[in-house]
UniProtKB/TrEMBL annotation, chain A:
The chain crosses the membrane at residues 21-38, 76-94, 115-140, 152-174, 181-202, 231-251. Keywords: Membrane, Transmembrane, Transmembrane helix. Pfam families: ABC2_membrane_2. This is ABC transporter permease.
Automatic annotation (TrEMBL), chain B:
CDD domains: ABC_DR_subfamily_A (cd03230). It holds the Pfam family ABC_tran. Belongs to the ABC transporter superfamily. The keyword Repeat does not apply. GO terms for molecular function: ATP binding; ATP hydrolysis activity. This is ABC transporter ATP-binding protein. The keyword ATP-binding applies. Gene3D superfamilies: P-loop containing nucleotide triphosphate hydrolases. Keywords: ATP-binding, Nucleotide-binding, Transport. Residues 6-233 form the ABC transporter domain.
Length: 259, 307
């Protein structure tokens, strides 16, 4: 337990000194704020573009607040996940690759504490970044578009947050499995994308898949409930995160250093 | 003082189809300093990584004894410095040392005190607040030594501690080791024989993953050293002709002659040197160098390695 605290403090310090605590939340904030603002000013933007044929009028119905917030989540699914994977991919492999791990693991350290600290800092970074971005999106949506049901917004955010945690866990697992950063990024992004695509194509068979979480969270916003598979998807995702964690502990212990 | 601290039996490591370390067995007595010698690629780093607990042996056992009883997690009692120590470049020297101390189990206040003590011991107190990214190779090596020793380990394991350093850095580290070995048992690997002779009292020579020779340094010297005469003469034809003829003398057991230099393994140094000198005077040979003595550890090393 004492070692967990040590490892965790070190991770936080590293994330601070490498400015990850600055740029990841900022990118998330930007992504979140952009959607409501762009939606609100779309008619003006089109008008200003000026290459519209004369006499043409566009009728645009302003979407509801809930719709805009759901679109914001769509933004996170593309760029947000990419940013997360890129900022987390070398968390375990980097130390093994550089050789610091040789010095760390020759000390009487616990591999569970080591991996748990990595997990905890991953979850902290994701929660803070997504929380900030989502809060920004919500605020601007309410200001510029229209009201959003508070309970639905919070519930949707929690579902989405779980999806991001899942993607982060996946990245850390691959980081413990292999060394090349590009490989880790490619496989983690690919797996997350595939899961979400598979749900889009076969919603009936993949209803309990973690890939369903982004859709569930959008449904919560638009229809007030996530549908029948919600509970299953929730449990399966948490189960997988636990499996990934155990796998990463085992792999860090097996591949203590690069030889 | 002579009870064993580390006992290794049948240590073997296979990587896929290659056996890098084969059936290595040795023990290190408490308070001694042992050098693991071998040419590059002999399996030194692999052996050391297994001792430090970074690599799982394919078979064999490694036991560290504390009060004659084997311990369960030997990492508590070991300080390890890898071949090329790498740190977090974004940490300062003091931060890393304190981190290492706390990982090794020192409590908060104790860790701070020990950190300052060791920064001073290795002469890094002035660079302590600088980021490690800006340290030189020698400074990193000294910081590495400090992190290995901060929890007062019973056994210090070093992998090629001085091979990558310039002469000044080498001397610093060797001086530190001289001091440390008075308090701690040391095992270090090297391919620089001179370093081994300077600080160690026990040697283990390994070749192609197997122990080729092991024992106390002075004992090995006594057992294996042979009387040797080294001669260098001038480049004139008379001297060179004389050089070519000396290998046929009765007291010469083995001769290596290259141009105007010769290295003779002889049966009796005194007799040989008298006869050689008398012979040289009568032939009017111009000596540049005449040295009689014992074969060095390096000669033995080359013999073992090339056998």
């Amino acid at each position: 337990m004492k070692q967990f605290g040590l490892f965790f403090r070190k991770e936080m310090l590293e994330m601070g000194r490498s400015y990850r605590w600055l740029w990841v939340p900022l990118v998330f904030l930007m992504l979140g704020v952009m959607q409501p603002i762009v939606t609100r000013f779309m008619p003006e933007i089109l008008k200003a573009a000026g290459n519209m044929p004369k006499g043409m009028t566009i009728m645009m119905e302003m979407p509801s607040g809930a719709e805009v917030l759901a679109q914001t989540l769509g933004q996170y699914n593309a760029i947000g996940i990419l940013i997360l994977v890129l900022s987390l991919m070398t968390m375990i492999s980097g130390e093994r690759q550089s050789g610091v791990s040789q010095m760390i693991f020759s000390k009487p350290v616990s591999f569970v504490s080591y991996a748990a600290a990595k997990w905890m800092s991953m979850i902290s970074l994701i929660t803070a970044s997504f929380g900030l971005g989502y809060a920004g999106a919500w605020y601007y949506t309410v200001q510029m578009i229209g009201p959003v049901d508070t309970a639905a917004a919070v519930k949707a955010a929690l579902f989405y947050l779980l999806w991001m945690w899942f993607a982060g866990s996946l990245t850390l697992l691959f980081s413990s499995l292999m060394n090349p950063a590009a490989g880790i990024a490619f496989v983690s992004l690919g797996a997350a994308l595939l899961l979400s695509l598979a749900y889009g194509m076969l919603p009936r068979y993949m209803a309990w898949s973690p890939g369903a979480l982004p859709q569930i969270s959008a449904k919560v916003l638009l229809q007030g409930s996530g549908g029948t598979g919600t509970m299953g998807a929730l449990l399966i995702t948490i189960l997988f995160m636990i499996i990934f964690f155990v796998g990463a502990v085992y792999m860090t212990q097996r591949k203590r250093a690069r030889f | 003082m002579t009870q064993p601290l580390l006992q290794v039996k049948g240590l073997t490591k296979r990587f896929k189809d290659r056996t890098v370390v084969r059936d290595v067995a040795f023990s290190i007595a408490e308070g001694s300093c042992a050098a693991l010698l071998g040419p590059n690629g002999a399996g030194k780093t692999t052996t050391i990584s297994m001792l430090a607990g970074l690599l799982q042996p394919t078979s064999g056992s490694i036991q560290l004894l504390d009060q004659s009883k084997p311990v369960t997690d030997r990492r508590m009692f070991i300080g390890y410095l890898p071949q090329m120590p790498v740190f977090y470049p974004w940490m300062t020297g003091r931060e890393f040392l304190r981190y290492a101390a706390e990982l090794a189990g020192l409590a908060g206040r104790d860790a701070v005190l020990k950190t300052d003590e060791w920064l001073e011991n290795v002469g890094l107190q002035h660079a302590a607040s600088r980021r490690i990214g800006g340290y030189s190779g020698g400074m990193k090596q000294r910081l590495g030594l400090a992190q290995a020793l901060i929890h007062r380990p019973k056994l210090l394991i070093l992998d090629e501690p001085v091979s990558a350093l310039d002469p000044a850095g080498r001397k610093d580290v060797l001086n530190l080791l001289q001091r440390i070995r008075l308090e701690t048992t040391v095992l270090f690997s090297t391919h620089v024989l001179h370093d081994a002779e300077e600080i160690c009292d026990e040697i283990l020579m390994i070749r192609e993953g197997e122990i080729a020779l092991q024992g106390k340094l002075d004992q090995i010297r006594r057992e294996y050293s042979e009387p040797v005469i080294r001669i260098e003469v001038g480049g004139d034809p008379v001297s060179l002709k004389w050089m070519a003829s000396i290998s046929s003398k009765a007291f010469v057991r083995q001769a290596e002659i290259t141009g105007n230099r010769a290295r003779l393994t002889v049966t009796d140094v005194e007799k040989a040197s008298f006869e050689l000198m008398a012979d040289a005077v009568s032939h009017q040979v111009a000596f540049r160098k005449f040295e009689s003595g014992q074969s060095t550890l390096e000669d033995l090393f080359l013999k073992v390695v090339q056998a």
